[in-house]
Amino acid sequence: MNLKQRFQRSRFIAGEKPVNDDAITLSHRRIFILPTRRGLGLLLLIIILLLIAFVYNNNLAYLLTFLLASVFFITILHTFKSLAGLVIHAGQSNAVFAGEAAGFTLHIHNPNAIDRPHLQIKLTKPHSFTLPADGKTTQTLYELTQTRGWHNAGTITVFSTYPLGIFHAWSPLRFTMKTLVYPKPSTLELPFPETPSDDTELGMNHKGADDFYGLQEYQAGDSIRHIHWKAFAKGQGLYSKQYSGTGTAAEVWLDYNYAAGHNVEERLSCLCRWVIDAERADIRYGLVLPNLKLMPDRGSAHYHHCLEALALL
Questions:
Q1: What domain range is 70 assigned to?
Q2: Can you tell me the mean pLDDT for 284-293?
Q3: Contact in structure between 101 and 145 (CB atoms under 8 Å)
Q4: Do 51 and 173 lie in a common domain?
Q5: Each residue of 240-279: pLDDT tens digit?
Q6: Are residue 140 and residue 62 in the same domain, yes or no?
Q7: Burial code of 98-116, b = ≥16 C-beta within 10 A, e = fewer?
């Protein structure tokens, strides 16, 4: 690194380029230190005392000046050592829905035989922690998400003003951590789509479910064709007709072309709501997107596969 690169302003604020490795060791190259407001006040006091001692040739004033100056300069070393040598590993982050806070996990290790008190780490809000000698800790930092897709972690700053608060040492870090943000689910519980090819390739498919045996209260995921409209018209409530048979469970196709909305994001929000409702209803569901078709299935793996497809469309 040449002199111009070393003194680039971005290094002091955003840190070095994001690392592909999942661990960063804090060294003199990554740690910066400046006086705090309290430290600047102490420095001004030292200068004033030095002038008084020089003008009046007062030995006691000289003694006090040099004593405070020694405290000032020794504190630089202790503040620097509060961060030096820390090893920070990037952890895993879980997918979230748009509008939720994404959590980025960091594992911090103190490999030295000295305690590290009063440390702080910040992504958007600071968190305080203490590391004993050869100790480890895990910190999860949260950042609000706005849009679907991949969300990269911003600059993470580790800092300390230990021991006297007259110096501020900090190290801005950038990892290649990212989390997947699913579309924001629609707040409306919309019925599943009744596509033109129902009971064949798309739409609801109840194989072998031919014999009517009763009614139950309508639940998200029930076919519109099975709603007991006469009871609903009489004000008796919303019920679904139930059929018995030896066939397999219901299937529903969630098709982008039949999702409610005036633009892509509104349609994806509707599809996201359908995926959540279908999984909760424990029915098999397939997903049809302009560039992808996922066959009907159920379970956690299929659920996250569908949401990932929506997030990356």
A1: 3-181
A2: 90
A3: yes
A4: yes
A5: 765 554 444 468 889 998 888 889 999 999 999 999 988 8
A6: yes
A7: beeebbbebebbbeeeeeb
